Amino acid sequence: MITRARILEQAARLRAGFEAAGAQGVETPILQPAETLLDLYGEDIRARAYVTSDALRGEQMLRPDFTVPVVQKHMEHGAEPARYTYAGEVFRRQEHDPDRANEYIQVGYEVFDRTNPAAADAEVFALIAQALDGLALRAATGDIGILMAAVEGLKTTEPRKAALMRHIWRPRRFRALLDRYAGRTTVPPARAALLAESEPLADGAPEIGKRSRAEVEARIEVLRADAAAAPISDNEMAGLDALLSVRETMPYALEHLRDIAVDLPQITPALDRLEARIAALRARGINVDRLDFEASYGRTSMEYYDGFVFGFYAERRPDLPPIATGGRYDALTRRLGNGAEIPAVGGVLRPGLMLLLAEAET
């Protein structure tokens, strides 16, 4: 029987292993200020976090993960380079999947080091893989930074690129925006009628809702500017479609992406980083020739990842969530560092699931 005591023992062993690798143990409060998380993720975070309130401290959230508080702690007091490990409960609402745990133990390892990002990526992945050794798991990897670079280099308007960047972690919305900006979808009749009027608010229509008249007028101007913009070219759309469909082992994925870079040259620096990561993983003893790479991987995870992403899955138990996940989150350190920043990458494991799989395989 997998008891809480056994899970805590497993978590302690994992944390001790990371400490032996050079990490400093840290603790973070279970209650986190909601303002910080809402500022980072918007109101969407409420759908997956438990929110409460305090008369003195305001709105609070039960810790949805450790990364944000660890980054805050490092940006306030940490030296460089730094490595941290932690273990404790995290809380996630599971209203759409009641069979999944809404409270579980998580163990993590985080690296803040600007000297060699590729080596840091490989270090985290290799240590997580080592901790999972003996379990029948499939590893998947990706790189959000490649898609972000592709979007940033599109020959379209800045507002369009900003909207696409905002929705990279919402694949359906991202695709709908892409198709709209490429002229592949028709303009809704109501919007077309609105934009056809020279003065749509001239008839004294009542002001309904929280937006002021000035805000509505500004929004109409944004829609007019977007309607006047040229569509994203077929060539760029073909490149994006090809990029999003890449799913191969790492070396072949890089080769395929190099071909795509002929049409999307803006992704070349990101591909150079991928190539360096492949070399660093090889140096760590990882068999990259059998390591899967999916260009779309990680787009439904927490929205702070902006580079390398990875996960480990029990293919014989598709009902289980990932046993371990991680990735690079350089931009998060910038947002929480008041202008300061440092490249950072980390990963987390679920010791309870590790015990479950170990028992099933014996």
UniProtKB/TrEMBL annotation:
GO molecular function per UniProt: glycosyltransferase activity; histidine-tRNA ligase activity
Annotated L-histidine binding sites: 65-67, 92, 106, 110, 299, 304-305
Signal peptide residues on this chain, from the entry's feature table: none
GO terms of biological process kind: histidyl-tRNA aminoacylation
Pfam families: tRNA-synt_His
Domain Aminoacyl-transfer RNA synthetases class-II family profile: 18-351
PROSITE patterns: AA_TRNA_LIGASE_II (PS50862)
Assembly and oligomerization: Homodimer.
Protein's name in the database: Histidine--tRNA ligase
